[in-house]
TrEMBL record:
Keywords tagged on the record: Antiport, Cell membrane, Ion transport, Membrane, Transmembrane, Transmembrane helix, Transport
Membrane topology of the entry: Multi-pass membrane protein
Native organism taxonomy: Bacteria, Bacillati, Actinomycetota, Actinomycetes, Propionibacteriales
Signal peptide range: none
One family name in Pfam for this protein: Na_H_Exchanger
Record domain Cation/H+ exchanger transmembrane: where: 16-405
The keyword Ligase is annotated on this UniProt entry: no
Protein name, per record: Sodium:proton antiporter
Cell location: Cell membrane
Amino acid sequence: MQIDGDGLYLVAGVALLLGAVLPRLLRRYAISAPIAFLGAGLLLGLAVDRSQLSPIAQPDLTERLAELTILIALMGVGLAIDRPIGWRRWSVTWRLLFVAMPAAVFAVAGAGWLLGLAPATALLLGAVLAPTDPVLASDVQVQGPSTGEGAEPEEDDEVRFALTSEAGLNDGLAFPFVYAAIFAATKGAVGDWALEWFAWELIGKTVIGVAVGAGAGWLLGKMAFSAPVPSLRLADSREPVLALAMTLGVYGLAEVLHGYGFIAVFVAALSLRAAERDHEFHEELHGFVEQLEHILTWGILLLLGVAITGGLLKPLTLAGAAIGVLLVVVVRPLVAWLALLRTPMRRSERWVTAAFGVRGVGSVYYLAYAGADFSTDLPWLWATVGFTVVLSVVVHGVAATPLMRMLDIRRDRSS
């Protein structure tokens, strides 16, 4: 049976209802909401026309939907973090970003090259699978801003802070590696483009993204909380649409200036939070963003499930499956564990932080963004990335509730 256009409204309504109910129903079980929505998408794929719901058939739609989902998630995680940014306060984050992530990129790229991939394709696969996800990892991230009198920040929950702050920044920091793969595929020898890549794609665009985010967040924070004209103080009028306006505006400005918009949005959220850290308006902004994020996430997972039912994984080879398993089970846990050595984290906290490198919407976005330059390998790349995302959703979704509960119990006992 095929569902027509009007029937899709029914499907959308049921999906939203499930989205409201499933997180509560599954809270006590080792089944995350992403697993349930992915399964629903697999079933939905049996009833709808799958030919036009593939990321290969609709690369632009896939890219834009994933892009918007990531942007909303980045604003949400930026608003949720209580800890002021600083080199020492964020030491675990810097280790995960500047040690673990590049190590994972090159480990996956090396494995792909050894398994027969062209160097550019192997590097792209490593870059696409590099970022941990700010969208699907909500079960292991900080749950929202602590504001108001008597609020207790998440300072003692180093695991959730590390995973949240890492996910907030590494979506943008994966871009230079994606561009390196594109340059390798389109510009020839490394010597012909290495200097341009280092100076502009790695340094220049990152600096612009940070500057735009910090400046825009500071300016909007001043306007929202302490503008001399009362009608401009959005915090007083409780206008949560500021979060969406800020997300889209900051991203657009950074991209127009040729900077990394993902970095700009996350930094802007941190700057807005710093403008008046204890104001309860942050909770309203975060709640508004969280609802948008949930809706977009449900849509992405349903479409991914439909695409899998339609044959997205058919080109998957043993080598592709091996790379996905290697990344989720070995590479990410190992490189993150090594990066976190000699930090104040307990051994169990290091292991959990290292293990929960959730792969998801970020990987979908980057492959849709860069796929046009790798058309020959594109079906295999989508199959490999799709398999890895599904594996991560299932493995991390099942493990999140019991492991985070274990850490909470140990933390309560030690305190």
